[in-house]
Design a protein that fits this description.
The protein has a three-stranded antiparallel sheet. The radius of gyration is 19 Å and the shape is globular. The protein has five helices and three strands, in the order H-H-E-H-H-E-E-H. With 127 residues, it is mainly α. Strand 2 and strand 3 form a beta hairpin.
């Protein structure tokens, strides 16, 4: 992978802005959960909302709209009464799901050590 050379002043390179924007988007917990829930296949709005748990209707709408605008999720409307809407990952969304899944696996593998370190840091800051 060919990464841009960091500039002298961090965050000033033209390459940093789109990277920062995308990391902000995919680093959001609702985005990660939505993408993860769509890995199994297409889901309707309320099915997604129940699967994610704790997300408001407004936040799920915003998240899906942003993912759709970025081309990570597709939205399909079925001509029924009432209309049924189904969301699924695009090819681009599936390609993002792979590193997110790897990141999740890393967290599960290392969370105990991270928590031990946090505990040590909290204990030493009390002194």
């Amino acid at each position: 992978m060919d990464l841009p050379t960091p500039p002298q002043q961090p965050g000033t390179s033209a390459d940093c802005r789109p990277i920062s924007q995308m990391l902000s988007r995919i680093g959001d917990k609702w985005t990660i959960m939505t993408i993860t829930m769509l890995l199994d296949g297409p889901k309707r709005f309320n099915e997604l909302r129940r699967a994610i748990g704790g997300i408001s209707q407004q936040m799920l709408t915003r998240t899906l709209r942003a993912l759709e605008n970025d081309g990570l999720v597709s939205r399909r409307v079925y001509p029924t009464i009432p209309p049924q809407v189904e969301y699924s990952l695009t090819t681009l969304g599936k390609s993002l799901a792979e590193p997110l899944t790897q990141l999740t696996a890393w967290v599960l593998q290392n969370i105990a050590e991270v928590e031990r370190n946090r505990s040590k840091a909290a204990d030493s800051s009390v002194d």
